[in-house]
Specification:
Keywords: Amino-acid biosynthesis, ATP-binding, Cytoplasm, Glycosyltransferase, Histidine biosynthesis, Magnesium, Metal-binding, Nucleotide-binding, Transferase. InterPro entries: ATP-PRT_HisG_long, ATP_PRibTrfase_cat, ATP_PRibTrfase_CS, ATP_PRibTrfase_HisG, HisG_C, N-reg_PII-like_a/b, N-reg_PII/ATP_PRibTrfase_C. Belongs to the ATP phosphoribosyltransferase family. Long subfamily. Its cofactor is Mg(2+). There is one protein chain. The chain has 286 residues and is of the alpha/beta class. It folds into three domains: 117 residues, 3-Layer(aba) Sandwich (D-Maltodextrin-Binding Protein, domain 2), CATH 3.40.190.10; 87 residues, Periplasmic binding protein-like II (D-Maltodextrin-Binding Protein, domain 2, 3-Layer(aba) Sandwich), CATH 3.40.190.10; 68 residues, Alpha-Beta Plaits, CATH 3.30.70.120. The chain contains eight helices and 15 strands. The strands form three sheets. A six-stranded mixed sheet has the order 2-3-1-4-11-5, sandwiched between helices. Strands 8-7-9-6-10 form a five-stranded mixed sheet. β13 and β14 form a beta hairpin. The longest helix is centred in the last third of the chain and has 22 residues. The radius of gyration is 25 Å and the shape is flat. The mean pLDDT is 95.
Length: 286
């Protein structure tokens, strides 16, 4: 029992769906019936714990949970002694300072002597210190954006993704102090067996992410264009080239990265490719 990995995820909130989706995409099955706080995995030596996100780093530090998925903002703010083992790429957001709309702002120095409401006193404190700004930090648990309008503070420092919450509370975003995404944290004293389960899990996560970032591509092109087309399709080793029944034509199969997809498709078309099919990849083993 002690050799299984206990993985802590947020019970309900912005991280929950993507955390569970990732675990499922790694082929780990578990029954997360409504209201359940722990769920054993059916086909992996793991158990999922459903917790409040703020509590996860502490549990991982204590070894009550061995792994946890939290926002990096929470991992840094709680400052627990844990390893950040992987950046997961979802729940991207930023921690920003907002001041009442219409107020002039030149630089962070303008906050000297002001009061700032936040749920992130540690991250904010460090930022102010690094910038040699002395301001009063008011720690509040939530609904931070309301603070200036009720006279509790002159500025706020809170999580922003689109900025619409700030706007609807009459605030303007003036400074980003931290960029965050979901991270996997791990306890520092895993047994050898647990470490090897973690390595297996990380291998699966990387395969899932690589698949998401790449597409399988098939196309037809004149045989004398194969070399030109292949330049834009390095694939995992090199593209597969097969002759078509039609004389002078080939079928080329490869993998193409999402980032340079449109640019390369254009060049491939110019090189004479046609009948281009692009297909999602479920897993990609590197
Ligand atoms: P809990 O009840 O578990 O304490 P919470 O209210 O503290 O939940 P959520 O609002 O669900 O937390 O946010 C969880 C994490 O998701 C945040 O710590 C942050 O990393 C990320 N996050 C927060 N807001 C956004 C957003 N608007 N867009 C993307 N990610 C966000
Ligand atoms: Mg929380």
């Amino acid at each position: 029992m002690t050799e299984i990995l206990r993985i802590a995820v947020q019970k309900s909130g912005r991280l929950s769906d993507d955390s569970l989706k990732l675990i499922k995409e790694c082929g780990i099955r578990f029954d997360n019936g409504a209201g359940k706080l722990r769920a054993p995995a059916a086909n992996f030596p793991a158990e999922i714990l459903f917790l409040r996100d703020d509590d996860i780093p502490g549990y991982v530090e204590d070894g009550v949970a061995h792994l946890g998925i939290v926002g990096e903002n929470v991992a840094v703010e709680t400052a627990r002694d844990v390893d950040t083992v992987y950046r997961l790429g979802f729940s991207k957001c930023r921690l920003s300072i907002g001041i009442p709309r219409g107020e002039k702002y030149g630089s962070i120095k303008d906050l000297h002597g002001k009061s700032i409401a936040t749920s992130y006193p540690r991250i904010l404190g460090k930022y102010l210190q690094d910038n040699e700004v002395e301001a009063q930090i008011h720690e509040i648990g939530g609904s931070v954006e309301i603070a200036p309008s009720i006279g509790l503070a002159e500025a706020v420092c809170d999580i922003v993704s689109s900025g619409s919450t700030l706007l609807s509370n009459g605030l303007q975003e003036v400074e980003t102090i931290f960029r965050s995404e979901a991270v996997m944290i791990a306890s520092r004293n895993l047994s050898d067996t647990q470490q090897s389960h973690l390595d297996q899990l990380l291998f699966r996560i990387k395969s899932v992410q690589a698949a998401k970032n790449n597409k399988y591509i098939l196309l037809n092109c004149p045989t004398d264009s194969v070399e030109e087309v292949s330049k834009y399709l390095p694939g995992m080793r090199s593209p597969t080239v097969m002759p078509l029944a039609t004389e002078g034509w080939c079928s080329v199969h490869s993998v193409i990265n999402e980032n340079d997809f449109w640019e390369n498709i254009e060049k491939i078309r110019q090189a004479g490719a046609e009948g281009i099919l692009v297909i999602p990849i479920e897993k990609m083993i590197l």
